[in-house]
Design a protein that fits this description.
heterodimer, A: alpha+beta, two-stranded antiparallel ribbon, 3 helices, 10 strands, globular, B: mainly beta, 5-stranded mixed sheet, 4-stranded antiparallel sheet
Chain lengths: 200, 313
């Protein structure tokens, strides 16, 4: 009996390995860059939640309550469209702040599974991120950790809203931001200095 | 003689005096961390592929069931040897998982198929598959094993399944996107954490009448009762906090800081210590329900989620 159930489990294990990966699972992306200046210098550039002028993809930022918890900022993208975010936590002592996306405009509307489906400017859902600067041996280590789901929460997402689309879009936002920040201090720095790690 | 006695004590003491183990699914590591709740240390990390999320403990059989949404089923862990005994295939994407108190039946919710499959715990064969609402998530069995409650996330409802007749008896609206559930020991009240409406719905058992709605923190995920059901603890994913509700007054009496993205929550068999898995911090916070403070933080693996009842008695 034991042998049979062992065999059954083995078959089940083999079988399940063949099934396709399913379902939206929260992804975690960690982007980081090291800049050869003291941490306070970098924090000085990025600490103001209402000022995203250091990010090349963002053309304008408005904010309603400064660096206070709950403060809402609206980012206008250089490519058009807006992202609205809420400040969850701001800690100057730890040189870190955390925010989440609460609204986005549509980049396009597509037909999928017989329904009109909105594709937001950042094709993700439940996006939250933390931006932190830490001093390490006189240099700044800037870390940007984003957590998010793919944009389509039901089964069989369209290509515009699958995990690959979400990862590519978030990778671009974090890489462009950090490489641009690096260039403010090191003129010859580029995107290759930014490390990206994705886990899901 | 004395020597043999000592040896015998040593041999048997392991299970006799060992404190309960907590089983924490690490979604991003494809593993389960086993915490000895006496030493508050991880004593083993078990590989479980398929992005493990849900946990259910079978105290009678000393087995632990781990749902694997990307593996289309659940894995069975031996609660004594801490070995992975293999996987049972279910279908689409298994998420919520529960077991009855008699240890006879395992319930697996399928996020995409909108079903709850009922398995025989001895044979691992399907007894019946029931159609429920859209995206069934959290499940909880009443202590008399008469009812199974299911949160239908996308439908914003809770279904009550009759475990004698094996059919849905009643379904009722709650807040937006209910996820984790708790049922008190007498089976009189059901609590649901509603992710999108940031509140807790309180239902009575006989007609699933809504007794109250209680505002909590950002994106509440799951709940756990402690101190003879007098307190309900709620993980708030977006706030790094746990809200504490007095179940007599139905008011929030405390908000406790834990790690980032707190998700799974389960009460120790001592009815006093509440364990919280922090997804983003890769650790577990232990709350003392008497002092309402965090008394331990235990490092686990990446993406600690532990959705369900995860402490084996």
């Amino acid at each position: 009996m034991k042998k049979i159930s062992l065999f059954v489990s083995l078959v089940l294990v083999l079988f399940s390995a063949m099934t396709m990966a399913h379902g939206p699972v929260r992804g975690k992306m960690t982007a980081s860059v090291t800049i050869d200046v003291p941490a306070l210098d970098v924090w000085d550039v990025i600490s103001n939640y209402g000022d995203m002028s250091w990010h090349p993809a963002i053309s304008n930022t408005t904010v309603d309550n400064g660096n206070n918890k709950g403060s809402v900022r609206v980012l206008t993208l250089a490519s058009g469209g807006t992202i609205t975010e809420e400040l969850k936590k701001h800690d100057s002592g730890k040189m870190s702040y955390k925010y989440k996306i609460i609204d986005m405009s549509a980049a396009q509307t597509i037909q999928h599974a017989g329904q009109e489906t909105m594709v937001p400017v950042l094709p993700v859902d439940n996006y939250q991120a933390t931006l932190t600067v830490k001093e390490k041996a006189g240099k700044s280590v800037v870390t940007w950790v984003a957590t998010y789901y793919r944009g389509y929460l039901n089964n069989e997402p369209p290509v515009e809203l699958n995990e690959a689309a979400a990862d590519a879009a978030v990778t671009a936002v974090l890489t462009d931001g950090l490489s641009s920040l690096l260039q403010k201090f090191e003129a010859n720095g580029d995107a290759s200095a930014v490390t990206i790690k994705i886990k899901r | 003689m004395k020597k043999y006695l000592l040896l015998a004590i040593l041999l048997f003491s392991h299970r006799l005096i060992a404190e309960p183990y907590a089983f924490i699914t690490n979604q991003l590591d494809n593993s389960v961390s086993v915490i000895d709740t006496e030493t508050k240390k991880v004593i083993k990390t078990i590989t479980v592929t398929g992005k493990p999320v849900g946990v259910a403990v079978n105290n009678k059989k000393q087995q632990v069931y781990i749902s694997t949404p990307n593996g289309g089923g659940f894995s069975i862990l031996d609660g004594r040897t801490l070995e992975n005994m293999g996987q049972v295939k279910v279908g689409g994407a298994s998420l919520g998982i529960a077991v009855d108190n008699a240890g006879r039946r395992v319930f697996v919710a399928d996020w995409y198929e909108n079903t709850v499959s009922i398995f025989d715990a001895d044979t691992q064969q399907i007894i019946k598959t029931l159609k429920v609402g859209n995206s069934p998530s959290g499940m909880m069995v009443s202590s008399d094993d008469r009812w199974l409650y299911v949160a239908n996330r996308v439908d914003n409802t809770i279904s009550q399944i009759d475990l004698v007749k094996l059919k849905v008896r009643n379904t009722t609206k709650v807040g937006t996107h209910p996820f984790g559930l708790s049922v008190d020991r007498q089976g009189l009240r059901i609590y649901s954490a509603n992710v999108e409406s940031n509140d807790i719905s309180v239902l009575e058992n006989s007609h699933l009448k809504r007794l109250a709605t209680i505002k909590v923190g950002g994106r509440p995920y799951a709940t756990a009762l402690a101190l003879k059901d007098s307190l309900l603890f709620v993980t708030n994913q977006d706030d790094e906090t746990v809200s504490v509700i007095d179940t007599a007054t139905l008011k929030v009496i405390s908000v406790i800081e834990v790690g980032e993205k707190p998700e799974g929550i389960s009460t120790h068999p001592d009815d006093r210590h509440v364990y919280v898995a922090n997804w983003l911090d890769n650790n577990v916070s232990v709350i003392d329900a008497k002092t309402l403070s965090v008394v331990n933080t235990i490092e686990t693996g990446e993406g600690s989620r532990a959705f369900g009842l995860f402490i084996l008695d």
